[in-house]
Amino acid sequence: MAGAQDQALGAFLDDLASERPTPGGGGAAAISGAMGAALVSMVCNLTIGKPKYVEVEADLKAVLEKSEKLRAELTKAIEDDVQAFDAVMGAYGLPKGENDEAKAARTAKIQAALKEATDVPLECAKLCAEVVKLAEETADKGNLNVISDAGVAVQSAYAGLLSAALNVRVNAASIKDRDFADGRLADLEALLGSAATTTAKTYDVVKSKIG
Amino acid sequence: MAGAQDQALGAFLDDLASERPTPGGGGAAAISGAMGAALVSMVCNLTIGKPKYVEVEADLKAVLEKSEKLRAELTKAIEDDVQAFDAVMGAYGLPKGENDEAKAARTAKIQAALKEATDVPLECAKLCAEVVKLAEETADKGNLNVISDAGVAVQSAYAGLLSAALNVRVNAASIKDRDFADGRLADLEALLGSAATTTAKTYDVVKSKIG
Q1: ipTM (interface pTM)
Q2: Beta carbons of B38 and A16 less than 8 angstroms apart
Q3: Is A166 near chain B, with CB under 8 Å?
Q4: Would you tell me which residues 19-38 of chain A have a C-beta closer than 8 angstroms to some C-beta of chain B?
């Protein structure tokens, strides 16, 4: 099967706009995060090796290694989202069952799929939050000639986080195991609070450097 | 020439991450906006024709027509950004000239390219701001089953606007015609102020509907 990364950008946008439920917001969230990671990498690549930036070279090599790993994981997350969604739809589509045992089995499958469909965007949210942190370091240390790209990186990654967060919430809302759901929502809130502060600070740093 | 929309998503992300200066933040901004427009269209497509939503059908048909137009314009904006950047780099790369006349001619070409490279992301910012407004209407009226996608739409479009804004600023900063630059920066501030409010309100509406 060809992965999402093999699809042409225009065709992907056509699919996103169509009445088909996937790709949807979960895939867009992963792409936003992946674009953020790619732009962190770009700023690192345009800083490493420049004599003027020799003092931060080791730091930005470490950032680049992490951002490229995150980019690969976020690209993969586009497909994870489709699979998690399909599993939920598949479980809801099972025959409703004619006795209590069959009904309980269907419910259990739906609930298991909903838990997975909560964890998949939560993982995407975590990856986006990591990109936000790398963008902060890149905005502090990167080549001034491309520092605006570090600002775009942080906004793309933060939008990915806010977008993934909606998919965590929408699936967590249907989960009967409230300990599970509340735990995941608490993890999400912690990510969001920290990333909001870092994003605002990083965007301001970039604005002051280019202004 | 094959357009950006014909490039595979993974290859685009590879190019974005590379040490080549384009595609960069300007292209990412346009894609964020295009994803926002596509998700507005998706919610419209999944609402139009549903008996439960017959009362908003005419409104969402009008939204869909606009969002599809904006999606096409934002997809085109990916390439406009590359061309505007290349024109600036080309002008800076001209021979510096051995007399005042030649020097003045080079400066004039650089300044003209910088004005274009300010107007191109400002146009992208305007398109993204239009998507933000459509996402607001979609979040108010769209099918509840996919309302989270309206929330992703608004965050994608707003990230596109904030990203394009950095490219407006970075080019406006080098323009000697301060009336031109200040006018464009004032236009930008007006877009940003309005979109920030609409984005926060729309995201909250979506959260309350799914929570």
Answers
A1: 0.97
A2: yes
A3: yes
A4: 19, 21, 24-25, 28-29, 31-32, 34-35, 37-38
